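Researcher: Structure for this, please.
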Amino acid sequence: MSEEIQKLKQLLSFPKEIAIITHRNPDGDAMGSSLGLGGYLHKLGHNIKVIFPSEYPLSYGYMKNVDKVIIFDLDHNVARKAIENADIIFCLDFNGLDRVDKLGENIQFSKAKKVLIDHHLDPEPFTDIEFSDTGASSTCELVFKVIDQLGDKAMIDPEIGECLFTGLVTDTGSFRYGTRPYTYVVAGELKMLGVDDYKLADKIFNSQKEKHLRLLGHCLANRMEIMKDYGVGIMWLTRKDYTDFDIQRGDTEGIVNYMLMMENIKVAAFVTEQPSIIKISLRSKGDISVQEIAGKYFNGGGHKNASGGGVYASLNDIIEKVKKVMPLYLPKLIT
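Model: Predicted structure, C-alpha cell format:
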C-alpha cells in the first residue's frame, strides 16, 4: 500500500464531513468521478456534499444523486458553507484553484485536509494528499484505482460503477484516444461489478434532442473551414447561433470531434463566441500535442490530444489566430 493510500485510509477511518468539488462547466468525467466517489464515501458512513461551480449538462442527469449536487452559481452560501464545514475536501478533475473560480479562495484557506485526484499536467501544490497520473484516461479511472487500493472494490455497486464508466467513455471518446491497458481493465472490472455498458452508452449518445442534430448540421454545413494544406479543421459558433439554436450548457459537447472523422484532418479547432469570452476546444490525432498550443496561445491547457482555452478577443481574431498558429506545428501536406 502506497504512502498516499495509507494517509487517505487513516483519514477515512471514521465518519467525517466531506466536500467533493470539481471544475467549472463539468463534463462527464468531472461529474462521474465526483458522484461515483461520493457514492462510495457515503457507504463508508461519511456525510457527503458534492459541489459544482456551475450548472451541468442535463444529458448526464441519469447519474445517482445528481439532483442533490450543490451548484455554486445558484446557491453561493450553501456551497461556501459546505466547504467551511468540511473536514476533508476532495478536488477532482482539476489541477489548479483557478478552475473552480470564486470557490478557489474558500478551498485555499480552508483548514480541511485536501485530497487531489486528477489526470491533468502540472498540478499545483495546494493539497495534502495527491493522486495525480497524467497517463490515466480519466479521473474516473483514478477514482476506481483509489477505491481498489483502499481494498473496497466490492463496494462499487452498479450505480457507482455507472458514474465511473461515464468518465471512461466520455473522456476517451468511446475508447478511441487517451487509453492505456489499465483503462480496459477498469472497464472490464466495472462491467463485472454490474454496469450495463450498452444501456449506459444509449443514455449518453442516444438522448439527443432535435435541436442538437439541427445544430450539428448547421456547424458542418455553414460553420466549418478546412485548411487542406495542413490537415486542420476549424468550426465556430456566433452569439447569434447560440440564440437561434437555443444552445444551452452541454449542447455543443462532442461537435469538435466530427472534424477528426475526415481522413486527412489531424487537428480540429472549435471556436465559440461566449457573452464575455471566446472559448476554443482543440483535438488532435496521434503525436500532435494541442496542449502546448492551448497553453501558449489561448490561455488554456489540458491533455496532449484534447485541450482548450479562453481569450478576451473577437471571434474573427481568434479564428485568424488559429490559422496563423497551426502551420507552426504542422508540416505542409504533400498533395
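Researcher: Any notable elements?
Model: The longest strand covers residues 267-273. The chain has two domains: 3-205, 210-329.
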